[in-house]
Design a protein that fits this description.
It is a single chain. This protein has 27 helices and ten strands. It is α+β, with helices and mostly antiparallel strands. Strand 7 and strand 8 form a beta hairpin. Helix 16 packs parallel to helix 18. It is globular.
Length: 611
């Protein structure tokens, strides 16, 4: 009898070595309490160690079953119970290490040469109350972000009861941070880095990176980048490497997250490798992408140096989805094409029509992004530009002065003169000159002189006098470069305010301009200013005593390959000439003389530029 009891207790002890201490396994009445335990959630990660220790005993761990076996191992079996515990499902899988509690646990025992079989069955919904109290309940990042008001609150929650996956804590912190102001966000980030549980959370994240879902991994990496965790840390670089290794698990949702991560991160070796892997993946799966938003996210992150064939595939895919484009999709397409430096005239024309028809209500940031993308792509669409300018002019009162000036600078970069909007701004400047600061004055004068807008305006003189008096009022506080820019713009508009011109011609001011970092640009402006003053009959001008440096000579012809091709096509260099210098600082970059086969006239094709 003692042998039977000792054998039973020995087997029971071996069984207990495979069960975590914080779980309940026991015999209580007719039921066997069995927890739905997940080894990867166990604190200390000692699951593998227990398995290794159990292999040396009479307990064997197979991949699909736990088997406690006693028999044919040198011990007498007569009168001794044999205990067998089976689990049907696969236990040791690569990433999903969990028990399936839908199956029964079967105990088979031979007592006194008799066979007895007892089934103990437990469903997940009938989990023991004690097990519920011990097992940490997984919590979603949505719930965390609602219950917590700061980043430190999330870390406090983690320190009390860590739950898998750790990515939810990072995602919750970024969700909370998005609701904060910039100053509050800065303070909260400092508290986050100094929190005692932050390092522990990072360690959990690195351990779980290879077993958590791929989308959870990407969400947490994106949150880390946005929270300002340094990119060169072991945590971020580890997650980048794991993301590379598991990139084949990427579905369409993961594609958009991964694209946002690459776009937000600074270039480094691991980011470049991840971007290269994304390009290969997109090249294979581009036709399977269903959402336009995902397609545009991918277009923004593949880079300007992506293969042309991949850019062309993305363009064709976008053209096939044109009928499904929303207004927002059309707005974002400009930025997506500019990000990968691919000018698709069909896409741009169609999106321009949609944007022009729905321009009312567009936010300032989107308007600026569209105009900047048009500049980057060298795309001109007068209907789009005119519709945007007319909308801003019609709703002028809802815009800040700074926003209007930014829009005018964007139009000036595109070479477009929005007459109605510029007239409206001139009127407001004359009525409220006190609303201007020096930066606004410099920008306004630059735009109006570059676009030559005041030439035919009725209130030209009044506008120029108001601007000149505004600058004169703060003459002693203005920098030398700003002063030169203001006087230069006035000269281009044929207006010479005496106080400002005399101030910029002072020797100390000119010496300061020639000693600045932007010397070449300042010399260029001073030469043009000097020439304008000499040509003006109404202004009593005294020559600048200080000798200005000579303007840089015209650059040598940069189109060497073009010259070589022309020489081979035309049969020699005698049919064209390069870098032809003309009076008054004009030069012809390349003059090409072609002989007509059908007439005796010689045609000259040339381009000229002002130095």
């Amino acid at each position: 009898m003692n042998n039977k009891a000792s054998s039973f207790l020995w087997n029971l002890r071996q069984f207990s070595t495979l069960i975590p201490r914080d779980k309940t396994v026991g015999f209580c009445g007719p039921k066997f309490v069995y927890s739905n335990w997940n080894p990867r959630n166990h604190p200390g990660n000692d699951f593998d160690n227990r398995i290794q220790s159990s292999r040396s005993s009479s307990t064997y761990l197979f991949q699909d079953a736990f088997i406690f076996k006693s028999g044919n191992d040198g011990f007498p079996t007569k009168g001794r119970s044999t205990l067998t515990v089976l689990t049907v499902d696969r236990l040791l899988c690569p990433r999903r290490l969990s028990f399936d509690s839908k199956h029964s646990v079967v105990f088979v025992g031979t007592l006194n040469n008799g066979l007895r079989k007892v089934n103990f069955h437990q469903e997940v919904s009938d989990e023991d109350v004690l097990t519920k109290e011990i097992k940490p309940t997984p919590i979603s990042y949505q719930k965390l972000s609602k219950e917590c008001n700061s980043l430190s609150d999330v870390l406090d929650t983690f320190s009390k009861a860590p739950a898998f996956p750790s990515s939810n804590y990072f995602t919750a912190m970024w969700t909370i941070a998005k609701r904060m102001s910039e100053e509050q966000k800065r303070c909260e980030k400092q508290l986050m880095f100094s929190h005692p549980a932050f390092n522990q959370l990072c360690e959990h994240m690195m351990r779980e990176a290879k077993i958590m879902r791929y989308n959870h991994l990407l969400f947490s990496l994106h949150a880390m980048v946005k929270l300002g965790i340094p990119q060169n840390t072991l945590l971020v670089q580890t997650l980048l490497r794991v993301a590379q290794e598991r990139i084949n698990e990427c579905d369409e949702k993961c594609l958009s997250i991964l694209s946002a991560i690459i776009e937000a991160m600074e270039p480094c070796k691991n980011v470049q490798v991840l971007q290269a892997g994304l390009r290969i993946l997109v090249d294979q799966q581009v036709w399977k992408i269903k959402r336009v938003f995902t397609l545009q996210a991918v277009m923004k992150c593949i880079g300007k140096d992506a293969p042309f064939s991949l850019k062309r595939k993305l363009e064709i895919k976008a053209l096939s989805e044109l009928d499904r484009f929303s207004v927002l999709n059309s707005q974002r397409m400009f930025e997506a094409l500019a990000a990968m430096n691919h000018r698709s005239m069909v896409l741009l024309n169609e999106c321009s029509k949609i944007v022009t028809d729905n321009v009312h209500g567009l936010p300032f940031k989107i308007l600026i992004n569209i105009l900047q993308s048009c500049k980057d792509l060298r795309y001109q669409n007068l209907d789009l530009f005119k519709g945007t300018a007319d909308y801003v002019a019609a709703t002028y009162d809802i815009w800040k002065l700074k926003q209007v000036i930014f829009l005018l600078i964007s139009f000036e970069n595109l070479g477009f003169r929005p007459i109605g909007l510029m007239d409206m701004l001139m009127k407001k400047v004359v009525e409220e000159p006190e609303s201007l600061n020096m930066k606004n004055i410099v920008s306004i004068l630059h735009v109006y002189s570059a676009l030559n807008h005041v030439y035919k305006c009725e209130n030209k003189e009044q506008f120029l006098e108001v601007m000149a008096s505004s600058v004169t009022g703060c003459l002693h506080h203005i920098s030398s470069e700003h002063l030169l820019s203001v006087v230069f713009s006035f000269c281009l508009m044929n207006h010479f305010p005496l106080a400002l011109v005399n101030q910029v011609l002072q020797k100390d001011v000119i010496s300061e301009l020639l000693a600045s970092d932007d010397k070449e640009r300042n010399v260029h402006k001073l030469h043009i200013l000097n020439t304008c003053l000499k040509l003006d009959d109404t202004f009593s001008y005294k020559a600048i005593d200080l000798l200005l440096p000579q303007m840089p000579s015209a650059p040598l012809d940069p189109n060497t390959k073009v010259a070589e091709v022309l020489s081979s096509l035309l049969g020699g260099e005698e049919y064209f000439s390069k870098n032809v210098q003309l009076p008054h600082n004009y030069h012809i970059g390349m003059g090409l003389y072609l002989f007509s086969f059908f007439s005796d006239k010689r045609l000259e094709v040339c381009g000229s530029s002002l130095v």
